[in-house]
């Protein structure tokens, strides 16, 4: 054990710090590890997997087999060590301190819809009947090192987009690739995109806003409203 007690076996340290030290000292950069090995090492701690994922916003790059196909499904790969969260001044790096008030504000501002794919709360993903989207809050710039829980830095995302975006580190499209797509858009859509860029938000139409609100209602009330709308249109 080091002089400062900075050893992953030290149960007095926070779980995220212990996971970081275990990755640094036992796995080491450039090696794969299994979730089972992680859980076996950090015993007696709650939510070890989650604490490991919490290292990503602090600049740690931990790959899964989704973005590194050579890995087995239960394997992870330590590609880069980020903020030294075992040091006092870096202990809170990447941690999201989002108040309940901010959370409500962001969800309402974003009409309770994923800002990346447009799925609504508890809605099924297109082409996947039976799937259920869960909304969460993500950072506008997920790979920034900021830890501020400010509403303007946060967007509503479904859990799936949130995970995808977090895993995108290093494999994002290049500026040239994105520019090719932008250039290929018809003129009208180019102007539309420019407006979104200027506002830094994709504006929702009144019908999309109404849809987001409708999706917040319990299923029985949604059915009722659907019938009411049908009656209204037929009357
Ligand atoms: Zn989404």
Fold topology:
Elements: H1 15-27, E1 31-34, H2 35-41, H3 48-53, E2 61-63, E3 75-80, H4 100-109, E4 135-139, E5 154-158, H5 159-167, H6 175-184, H7 187-199, H8 206-215, H9 219-234
Antiparallel strand pairs: 1-3, 2-3, 4-5
The structure holds zinc ion.
Zinc ion binds near residues 116, 157, 158 and 161.
Q: What does this entry look like structurally?
A:
There is one protein chain. By secondary structure, this protein is mainly alpha-helical. It folds into two domains: 15-90; 100-220, no CATH class. The chain is 40% helix and 10% strand. It has nine helices and five strands. It has helices at 15-27, 35-41, 48-53, 100-109, 159-167, 175-184, 187-199, 206-215, 219-234, and strands at residues 31-34, 61-63, 75-80, 135-139, 154-158. The strands form two sheets. The protein has a three-stranded antiparallel β-sheet. A two-stranded antiparallel sheet has the order 4-5. The radius of gyration is 22 Å and the shape is globular. The termini are far apart. The relative contact order is 0.10. The model has no long low-confidence stretch (mean pLDDT 83). Zinc ion binds at residues 114, 116-117, 119, 157-158, 160-161. Zinc ion is lined by residues 114, 116-117, 119, 157-158, 160-161.
């Amino acid at each position: 054990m080091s002089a400062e007690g900075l050893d992953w076996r030290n149960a007095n340290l926070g779980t995220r710090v212990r996971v970081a030290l275990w990755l640094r000292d036992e796995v080491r950069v450039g090696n794969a590890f299994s979730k089972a090995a992680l859980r076996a090492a950090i015993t007696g701690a709650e939510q070890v997997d989650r604490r490991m994922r919490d290292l990503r916003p602090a600049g740690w790059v931990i790959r899964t087999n989704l973005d590194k196909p050579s890995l087995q499904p239960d394997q992870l790969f330590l590609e880069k060590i980020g903020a030294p969260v075992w040091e006092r001044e870096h202990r809170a790096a990447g941690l999201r301190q989002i108040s309940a008030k901010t959370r409500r504000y962001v969800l309402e501002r974003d009409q309770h819809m994923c800002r990346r794919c447009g799925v609504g709360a508890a809605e099924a993903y297109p082409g996947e009947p039976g799937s259920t989207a869960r909304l969460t809050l993500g950072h506008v710039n997920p790979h920034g090192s900021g830890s501020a829980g400010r509403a303007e830095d946060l967007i509503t995302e479904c859990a799936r987009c949130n995970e995808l975006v977090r895993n995108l580190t290093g494999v994002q499209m290049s500026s040239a690739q994105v520019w090719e797509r932008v250039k290929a858009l018809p003129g009208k859509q180019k102007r539309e995109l420019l407006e979104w860029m200027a506002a830094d938000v994709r504006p929702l139409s009144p019908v999309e806003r109404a849809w987001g609100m409708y999706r917040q209602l319990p299923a029985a009330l949604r059915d009722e409203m659907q019938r009411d709308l049908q009656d209204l249109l037929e009357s």
